[in-house]
Design a protein that fits this description.
The chain has 295 residues and is mainly alpha-helical. The protein has eight helices and three strands, in the order ααααββαααβα.
């Protein structure tokens, strides 16, 4: 009966209610984070590295409209470089892909996707708060009990000592409940954070890294310079080969089109000359024979 009376102390009840309230709040937040991370991970698993370029708009629409990740996704999207896999003669052909100039872990990490959603600074301070409430109310309860001690008479002294001992027991129980609730909350927080927050986050980061290759800014500039050199070489080769190709095309056109035309033209001119000579010869003969007949 006395133990039940001790547990029904308003301070102990307040500590228990505070512990249950914060634990319930923590459980709701952890459940929300876990469900969101699992959903996003399953979405990423439906995409492949080979087709992410062609389905990127689909992924962009889903992540941009998801309040859990939308703000970080917009920042991450600005670091992406699209490689369309254009093949250049003389250079190795790379498949179409998307590369990020800044590692995805900079945007999607414990701080952004877990701690900021969890109000982690407050959650981390809860064990300290609960532990601090124990000594605070313990000494407060003891000080109130000492203020009620009365040594005026023997009966008053005995009653005061009995009341003081009962208050000391209640004060000790306050500390036990406060420290115990702090330890229980700490265990719950560590276990749930590991299993329901950190593990799903690691799975999400793994899927993200599978889809987007990380390329540093320096490597990107080096690759860009290399690509420019390859294109310049290709253009130089094209300009060098252009006169030869034009000469070859002109020769081919001359032989296949112009030469036959000139041959036909010469043949026609020769034929015309022959006809003219024949007509002239025939005309002279007619004139000669015609004059003889007149005589």
């Amino acid at each position: 009966m006395f133990e039940l009376k001790v547990l029904l102390n308003p301070v102990i009840i307040a500590i228990i209610i505070l512990f249950l309230g914060i634990t319930g709040y923590f459980l709701l937040k952890v459940k929300y984070i876990n469900a969101s991370l699992l959903q996003l991970t399953n979405i990423l698993r439906s995409f492949k590295k080979s087709n992410i370029v062609y389905r990127f708009k689909e992924l962009d629409d889903v992540f941009s409209n998801n309040p859990f990740i939308s703000s970080y996704w917009v920042e991450f999207k600005n670091t992406l470089v699209f490689n369309e896999g254009i093949q250049i003669k003389g250079a190795p052909s790379d498949g179409a892909s998307i590369q990020c100039t800044i590692d995805s872990g900079y945007f999607f990490n414990e701080e952004t996707l877990v701690n900021s959603k969890l109000n982690y600074k407050f959650i981390s301070a809860v064990p300290t708060i609960l532990t601090g409430l124990g000594p605070l109310f313990t000494f407060l309860h003891i000080s109130v009990a000492f203020s009620k001690v009365n040594f005026a008479t023997q009966e008053a002294t005995i009653a005061s000592v009995s009341s003081l001992l009962a208050s000391m027991k209640v004060a000790a129980m306050i500390s036990v409940v406060a420290v115990g609730s702090s330890i229980v909350f700490l265990l719950i927080e560590k276990l749930l954070y590991k299993n329901m927050c950190k593990s799903p986050l690691e799975a999400f980061q793994l899927e993200m890294n599978k889809l987007f290759d990380n390329i540093s800014s320096e490597k990107f500039l080096v690759d860009l310079l290399k690509e420019s050199k390859i294109q310049n070489n290709a253009l130089n080769m094209a300009f060098t080969a252009l006169p030869v190709q034009m000469k070859t095309a002109f020769d081919k056109s001359f032989k296949e089109t112009l030469v036959p035309y000139l041959d036909n033209l010469i043949f026609s001119v020769n034929k015309l000359q022959d006809n003219l000579k024949k007509q002239v010869s025939d005309g002279l003969l007619d004139d000669i024979f015609g004059s003889n007949d007149d005589e």
